[in-house]
Design a protein that fits this description.
17% strand; seven-stranded mixed β-sheet; 13 helices; alpha/beta; 48% helix; 2 domains; binds S-adenosylmethionine
């Protein structure tokens, strides 16, 4: 194991794998995360029974199925239900009543971009269903996408236990009881009326849009931190294109668009409203 690691460093393969990671995902691996990258790729070496990183590098460059495994290995998928309570309160108490009063007549369309294993999309389902249960005529759809195909599979299954649901259970016991069915051993899932409104698929944020569905609300949380500024600009512009005029984008609590030129204006910390292209620059 030691020799694998030192060989990788000595041969300068780390830089090759860092470049490959960026080419495939837009993720920039920081110098302090190099050993994490090596550890994750070493697992692929073991699965494939390859002798060393030289072999793995040429294998992954040529083999499309392995490229998918490579992407799944290099992504960090940390997530849980009701992450950052403040934004869920904003959605329930401000965004939804305002949207319902202003637009109301069609279904609300929400996108959990970089959804990981789906906890964010399922939290959205619960919050939106709870609003629907109190507001006749309101309906919604939630799309969840992620570049990592293995987490998308888990999001589709939608069964959660332990840490994934713990904070939600503590913060919102009544919502937990009303909208999650199951038990601690088997896990919990949302009922069919919510599940039928959720749709999860694999998508790289940097790929050209296959469809041009527009959204009223996009959650792009805890993924910009993995990108350098120029890639953040591209990701945020791609989100802007997919938002209805006046739509809202929410980013992660350790992220900011302060230094990212874009067509969004802040409403609250980490919560932004889309403005027409160019308006923001003119205003400055
Ligand atoms: C830390 S998780 C965030 C999950 C969730 N949004 C949250 O805040 O709890 C970051 C996710 O971004 C995904 N990701 C990274 N690069 C991506 C890209 N280029 N396109 C789509 N998803 C990406 C990863 O696979 C990972 O699941």
């Amino acid at each position: 194991m030691e020799s694998d690691c030192s060989q990788l460093l000595e041969n300068g393969f780390t830089d090759e794998f860092i470049k490959l990671t960026h080419d495939f995902t837009g993720i920039t691996i920081k110098p302090e995360k190099r050993s994490m990258l090596e550890g994750r790729l070493r697992r692929r070496l073991r699965v494939l029974e390859l002798a060393d990183f030289t072999d793995y590098l040429s294998y992954v460059k040529k083999n499309q199925a392995e490229q998918e495994e490579f992407i799944n290995a290099v992504t960090t998928n940390e997530t849980y239900f009701y992450r950052t309570p403040r934004i869920w309160e904003y959605i329930s108490e401000q965004f939804l009543p305002q949207w319902h009063a202003r637009v109301g007549s069609r279904s609300l369309s929400v996108w959990s971009a970089a959804c990981s294993t789906g906890e964010e999309g399922h939290t959205l389902g619960i919050i939106l269903q709870s609003f629907k249960d109190k507001h006749t005529g309101f309906d919604y759809r939630v799309k969840g996408t992620d570049i990592d195909s293995s987490v998308v599979e888990k999001a589709r299954m939608g069964i959660y236990k332990g840490r994934a649901v713990q904070r939600f259970r503590e913060a919102k016991p009544e919502l937990f009881k009303q909208y999650l069915v199951g038990n601690d051993d088997a896990g919990y899932e949302v009922p069919p009326n919510i599940k039928s409104r959720l749709d999860f698929s694999a998508l790289n944020l940097f790929d050209e849009c296959r469809d041009m569905e527009k959204y009223d609300l996009v959650l792009l949380r805890n993924v910009l931190i993995y990108f350098v500024k120029e890639d953040q600009i591209a990701a945020v512009a791609a989100i802007h294109k997919r938002l209805h005029s006046g739509g809202v984008a929410i980013i992660g609590e350790s992220e900011s668009l302060n230094h990212v030129p874009c067509d969004f204006v802040p409403i609250l910390p980490t919560i932004y409203k889309a403005v027409p292209v160019g308006v923001e620059q003119q205003a400055v």
